[in-house]
Structure formats: C-alpha cells, structure tokens
Design goal:
414 residues; alpha+beta; Cytochrome Bc1 Complex, Chain A, domain 1; 5-stranded mixed beta sheet; 15 helices; globular
Length: 414
C-alpha cells in the first residue's frame, strides 16, 4: 500500500499524512462520509447546499474573512459534494499550513448558516441549476443517474430540485448535520513537506476539543436496476445520448478489470475503440467518453456522446457493435499488452497530483479499501488476462442490460 502515517484523535477523527519533501505546497482537507445519498426526500440538495454555506459565516468569521484568509497568501480553499462524500480542502505554501488547518476546522464544525446568506446562496444554487440545464452534455449525466437508479437516493440530483432548494432554512442544515455527522466517519488528510510530528501538533491544537459525535444513519443499498430505453425532447440542436447500467462496487474483485475495460472502450486516450470508430472512422461525434464510477455498494458505467439527430441511431449501433466485440472476441496478446501499458501510464501521471493523492487517501480510509502503491497496482494489472476482460464484458455489457437515454431536439422527435 501507499505509505502514509495515521493518527486517531480521542473523538474518533482519523488523520492521514504523507510527507513529500520535494514540494513547498501542502494539500489538506476534511473528507466526510456524508453525501447526497444520505438525504431524506424532503432534504434533496441540502448536502451540496451545506457545502456552499460553509463559506458563508462561522462563529468568528464572516464570509469575506473566510474567502480572504488563504487567498491573500496565494492559497486555495475549495469544497465539493458527491453522492457519498463532502470535502472541504485547501492548498497552501507549507509555512501557512496552520492557517489552513484552523480555517478548515472552523468552516467544517462552526458554520452558523446566517439566514440572509442562505437567501443569497439559494439564488446562486438556482443559477447553478440553470447553468447545468442549459448545458445538455452536463444535464444528461445528471438525468442518467435517475434512469439507472430510479427513485433510490443515488438517482437524485446532487443539486436537489428548485422546489427543495427554496424551502431550506437554518434549522434544516442543523438537523441534517446532527443526523449524519459522525467524527468516526471523517478523515483529515494531508500531503506535503510537513513532518508528521507537526501535523499531530496542529490537529491536537484545533481538533482535540471537538466532541465525539456519532450517527445511526444506515444507507439504503441499491439492488433494483432495470434497463430502460428513453428519449426526451429538449430545445437543442444536437442530440445527446447516455448508455450504461449499474456496475461493481469499489471493493469488488472485478472492479479493476472493468476499469481497464472501460478505459479501452472510451477512456481519456485518443486511441480508444469508441473514439477510433465513432470519430475517426465514421465522423459521427466530436467526442465520446466511457466512465466507471464505483460506490460502496454499487457503481455506474456510462458512455456519453453528442451527434446530429439524424445520426443518433447509427452512432448507437456502432457503439453496440464495439461493445459486442469486447464480449465476443478476446484481446490478442499485443492488444492486451498495450491496454495494460496505457492504463499504467495514466495512473502514473495521476499519482503525480498530490491533491488527488490527499483526497484518495481519505476516501480509501472511509470506504475501507487499501490505497495501493503504483507497483502493487501494476502487478494486479499485469495479472489481468484476455479471458478476464472477456468474462467481465460478457457479464456487464450485454446489450439487453444496457439503458439508452437520449435528449433529442423537438423537431427531430416528430
């Protein structure tokens, strides 16, 4: 596994640190095992709204002072919300590490949710919703979650709905936090040129007095996938399409082979099978991507592309053809070697991103999977053979099991 040091505070907060001596930048942050899937029906969007409100005032700071604290010394303060995680994190020069720890602790634990700021931020989030709605290549990804996961919490849009966002007030945030915050299910993660001794000193100073908090929340597992074929009319000129299904959870033994298969099919390389077919050979698309997102108990496999409405069906046929090839024809030895080498190179470049390492360390601890070294992952990739990949393709990529969801222009639907 990747070598990092661990320290656990009396309140259950775990601290993970990896010292890297060849950098002057420290990346650190709190990753909470709370996400949009933990919301009740009347709370849709509140996790993401909380992420916004963390910057809008604490017991000792107003919004301006929060935003100015690290920016004024060249640092960056940010946050994000996913289906299963909320993260507040910062990147600063190592000499400002203490300032980052103190500020992150303040916004994570001492937000006061001023009502005036809630009203202002409500409008900001409504504008964010409008922005995504007006970007069909983004909107289809959000809507495809609902196609695959239905009314399960994983199918709900992280942003919530316009109706739910309009109803939240201060007590709603406090209730959501009280129901979900668990100090034993959060990690303070850190990567940079800081000795562990200093990290421990800082977290003891700012985190040890935070009381132990526990949550009895239990996540609803997902197990009811049914493939669908749907077309929705939208005011647009280009058709957008999503193809996919539920997939393996993060700790499944087939997650790495399936990730490799997805990478071969439509990963970031220009030589993917879908790009060579749909773009280079048939000029049907500008871009086509395949993705595999794993969660604790399930996952999502998806292919996204846009094309002229009259060519939509043709593009779908060619995608199904490429998927069929993966099911029916095992990779040759040279193809397998190139697929392995490509994935290894991409992972190596990703590992150079220290911020990504910091966030992945925390997620691995919360999701209870081992964050392996590159050498260990390379060994596992090297052991994946053509038969493994074909078996996974036959299990996960049957055409009848795939959902196909499209946005089409109003005139094209008639």
């Amino acid at each position: 596994m990747i070598e990092y040091e661990m320290y656990t505070l009396p309140n259950g907060i775990r601290v993970a640190h990896k010292e890297i001596t060849h950098t002057k930048v420290v990346h650190c942050g709190f990753v909470l095992d709370i996400g949009s899937r933990d919301e009740k029906k009347h709370q849709h969007g509140i996790a993401h709204f909380w992420e916004h409100m963390a910057f809008k005032g604490t017991k000792k700071r107003k919004a301006f002072h929060i935003l100015n604290r690290l920016d004024s010394v060249g640092g960056e303060l940010n946050a994000y919300t996913t289906k299963e995680k909320i993260c507040f994190y910062a990147s600063v020069l190592d000499r400002h590490f203490e300032s980052a720890v103190e500020l992150l602790t303040d916004i994570t634990f001492d937000s006061v949710f001023p009502e005036k700021q809630i009203e202002r931020e409500r409008d900001v989030i409504l504008e964010e919703m409008a922005m995504y709605h007006d970007s069909p290549e983004d909107a289809i990804q959000d809507d495809f979650d609902e196609v695959v996961f239905g009314e399960h919490p994983l199918g709900m849009n992280i942003l919530g709905t316009r109706e739910s966002i309009r109803q939240f007030h201060r007590e709603d945030f406090k209730t959501f936090i009280r129901e979900n915050l668990d100090t034993q299910k959060m990690v303070f993660s850190c990567v940079g040129n800081i000795p562990m001794k200093k990290v421990v000193k800082m977290v003891d100073k700012y985190l040890k007095d935070i009381p132990l908090q526990q949550s009895n929340r239990a996540r609803l597992p997902f197990s009811a996938y049914q493939p669908k074929r749907m077309r929705v009319t939208r005011t647009l000129t280009q058709a957008q399409c999503a193809i996919g299904r539920d997939a393996y959870p993060v700790q499944h033994h087939n997650s790495l082979p399936f990730f490799m298969l997805t990478n071969l099919l439509g990963g970031p390389g220009m030589n993917t099978r879908l790009n060579l077919s749909l773009r280079e050979k048939y000029a049907l698309v500008y871009s086509v991507d395949a993705e595999y997102q794993s969660y604790t108990d399930t996952g999502l496999f998806s292919i996204y592309f846009g094309t002229e409405p009259r060519r939509l069906d043709k593009a779908i046929r060619y995608i199904m053809k490429e998927i069929g090839r993966l099911r029916d024809i095992p990779l040759g030895s040279m193809q397998l070697h190139r697929t392995q080498e490509q994935l290894m190179g991409q992972l190596a470049m990703s590992s150079e991103n220290n911020q990504h390492t910091m966030l992945t360390m925390a997620r691995s601890i919360l999701d209870e999977f081992e964050m392996e070294s590159l050498e260990s992952i390379y060994q596992k990739i090297g052991k994946i053979n053509a038969q493994n990949l074909q078996q996974v393709a036959q299990e996960m990529l049957q055409e009848d099991d795939l959902s196909v969801f499209s946005f089409v222009p109003e005139l094209a639907s008639s």
